[in-house]
Design a protein that fits this description.
Chains A, B: Residues 2-88 form the GST N-terminal domain. The structure is a homodimer. Chain A has 8 helices and 4 strands. Chain A is an alpha+beta fold.
Amino acid sequence: MIQYKLIYFDVRGLGEVSRQLFHLAGCEFEDVKIPRNDEQAWLELKKSTPFGQLPILKILDAESQNEIEIPQSSAIGRYLANQFGYAGKTPEEKAMVDAVIDQFKDFLVSQKRLTLAVRTKKSEEEINRVKEDIVTPAKDTYFKILKKLLENNSSGFLVGNDITWADLQISDNLTTLDGLGIFVPSEEPILAKFHEKIMNTPSLKTYFEQRPASLL
Amino acid sequence: MIQYKLIYFDVRGLGEVSRQLFHLAGCEFEDVKIPRNDEQAWLELKKSTPFGQLPILKILDAESQNEIEIPQSSAIGRYLANQFGYAGKTPEEKAMVDAVIDQFKDFLVSQKRLTLAVRTKKSEEEINRVKEDIVTPAKDTYFKILKKLLENNSSGFLVGNDITWADLQISDNLTTLDGLGIFVPSEEPILAKFHEKIMNTPSLKTYFEQRPASLL
């Protein structure tokens, strides 16, 4: 039997899609959350992580006691999505799912400039400058790509006919962007409809309702 | 029969690993290179690309005339690596290969700050500031991870016993960092040995010798 342990901070952030994949697949896992403000706990753990970062996924084969650790959020997400059948149905669909994830990660570079400014309590003027000069143009490009994918796909999902981890990742990011005031659902009906669809995924609804609130 | 067309600029950059994968696999492809300084040609092409970016991979099934376009360099690289058998041997190896690629892409965010400063002809003082304050600390973290992987793997490759597209990507980036003065082979013997090993891959040697020189 395989035992999974996901280790991340106590926010959605880069760990959330993997958590959702476990819930979507109905697969048990240990959801270890390191308090974001407990720097000591993190610095202690950091030494033993493969790349000095979180999330990591530990995969233990209980019979052989063989343990593998996978670092990097997208590598973990893709691994789980492939294991559970949410990576895309064909090699070409998988590549398109990967391309959407890469596009999200490109956008995340800009988003991080804003979340860093918020977290380090920069002035309102500086936060607004980052929003207007960096995040808004990046968001416009990113949203345009997402809307094109949704408009060209009658299933309501980003790629193919069924939910993939790209849908989870983009939807989760829309939740974050909503909280940051970057995604305004009433101004983006196509994205709002998509977001609502994913948030109403039957096997995830209870999880979404019960998880602790988190801006990021 | 499947016909591949890779479209990118006339530099190594984000297209090079896919080119190398075709050569490594001995698979024919059309290597379309858009001149970096021909802005008109690029703006014209940009409109018809899926995400407004290069590289893109066009996959044409000559029989059915069905054509698929894949955007995003890593999505293309992973797709080709999976097709040709250079993505890792097991799901867990594939995840580690993906994690290395993600680590490279994290570093690339910092590297881009430098290449942008060089390309937009910033002052020497500004270029040195970006090198010292942004690229060098990011490079230290990145190199530490790569060296740990190489030290823990007796094959000389980053993951598993055979060459993967992660080896190609990291080695190609070391070529770039060498040219930028960020990677000094004599100071990094582990990485220098790895770089030399990949550059001497029998099925790639002729390609490396014959390709046009490119800083980036």
